[in-house]
Amino acid sequence: MTREFTIPYGRTTLHFTIPEAYVHVDVITAADVPEAADPLATVIRALDEPVGGVSLASFTGVRSAAIAVNDKTRPVPHEYLLPPLLERLEALGLPPEAITLVIANGTHTPMPPEEFERVIPPAILARYPVISHDCDDRSAMVYLGQTSRGTPVWVNRRYMEADLRLVVGNIEPHMFMGFSGGVKSAAVGVSARETIAHNHKMLTLPGARMNCYEENPLRMDVEEIGRMIGVHFALNAILNGRKAIVKAIAGDPLAVMQAGIPLVREIAVTPVAAPYDLVIASSGGAPKDINFYQAQKALVPAAMVARDGGTVILVAACPEGAGSTVFERFMSDGQVSSMQEVLDRFAREEFQIGKHKAYLVARDAVRVNVRLVSDMPPEAVRALLLTPAESLQAAIDAALAGLPPSARIAIMPAANAVVPMLGSAA
Question: Are 310 and 403 part of one and the same domain?
Fold first, then answer.
């Protein structure tokens, strides 16, 4: 006899079974928090009751505004967040043509105009100017100086030239930034590759981990970049496991983070009594598994609960492949043939965005066996020094063949939405 399970995969789900002989099977998820009954009303209430003493009404008289909005790799509910925010901005006296939406791609490939509808509702696209940030176009940026940690701050000129600078996004766990949200959409999203690289090179330092905020060097650097930019106002959503709005918070960006993090922790932090022999993990489906570059984020919490020498089966569609040519080249140019060699090479070479993804993969893959279930060709998976799976069920059957009935098995349907606390009573 077997038990049946499903797990997100791209825009669909995959089904699999586990024999009933394996009695210790846990499904690890974030807390099942109900979504807001009326998400639009929730956003309007947040704008009516801003935190941190900053209200949009105080910006009457501004002549222009720019909003940093996340790109297609983030499940931000713009259809609820943007309309009431834009309505408030127009109420300040701003005409639509004076309100620019800047797609905050960070180091991701800039989104072409034909893709804008993937993140911005068509009615908004038709009414407001939208641009896609390019982190490599230095001519379109301004230099603001260095942070106290030495990060050179180059920021999108169009965003900086606006009288009122806003950010829209989600607050959620981040594998080395602690938490996303707040000024990050601007400080990382609309800055230069050099800025992001200097910030991200701190990911090997103590404190650069999930669920760490005040002691996180990358996050504190991001907050300083946000202050240098002068981000005036943030509107952030907190989502549940179904990617639905639980709460919206608006106001001063730092106050928004301080108000939102406790709720995110309440939802995401999950006690785990002991490590698992086998972890079957998904990033929650699209858009989190749009490519391996994004899907890797689910490997971090999955590996956190896997025992040394255990197996993680990462379930990620990856329709856009690896997601980074630098990452792909670093793993497949013939200079490395094992995950330990990846770590050694990363330590020798100059830091570069994309190479850091290789480090993050190898950091976990030297300790646990990683199998990837994806739409990527098997040779493309092997080029990343990973083991491709013929199918999810085949990968599970192969892993179970070497495990006794007493083995501990975990299923994580949305792994990167969970902050596992190993050693806590489950």
Answer: yes
DSSP string, 264-296: HHHHHEEEE-S-EEEEEEE--STTTTSSHHHHH
Tally Cβ neighbours within 10 Å of residue 73: 22
Q: What is the pLDDT of residue 74?
A: 87
The DSSP call for residue 139 is G
User: pLDDT tens, 263-290?
Assistant: 999 999 999 999 999 999 999 999 999 9
Choose one of 218, 236, 267: the last residue of a domain: 267
- Beta carbons within 10 angstroms of residue 137's beta carbon: 13
86-107 burial code (b ≥16 CB/10 A, e <16) = bebbbebebeeebbbbbbbbbb
Name the burial class of residue 258, with classes exposed (0-12), middle (13-18) and buried (19+) by CB atoms within 10 angstroms of its CB: middle
CB proximity list for 114: less than 8 A, separation 6 or greater = none
Is the pLDDT assigned to residue 374 strictly greater than 80?
A: yes
- The token pair that represents 107 in the structure block: 């180091």
Q: Decide: pTM greater than 0.90.
A: yes
- Give the residue from 232, 267, 302 where a domain finishes: 267
Q: What is the pLDDT of residues 167-207, one digit of tens each?
A: 999 999 999 999 999 999 999 999 999 999 999 999 999 99
* Domain ranges, residue 146: 39-267
CATH value at residue 202: 3.40.50.11440
What is the Cα–Cα distance from 281 to 411, expressed in whole angstroms? 6
Q: For residue 333, is pLDDT > 60?
A: yes
Residue 162 contacts residue 64 (beta carbons within 8 Å): yes
- Are residue 221 and residue 312 in the same domain, yes or no? no
Is residue 315 within 8 Å of 299, Cβ to Cβ?
A: no
Q: At what angle do helices 355-365 and 292-304 cross, to 10 degrees?
A: 30
Residue range 136-163, pLDDT digits in tens: 999 999 999 999 999 999 999 999 999 9
For 407, the enclosing helix (H) or strand (E) is none
**Torsion over CA: 113, 115, 120, 122 (sign):** positive
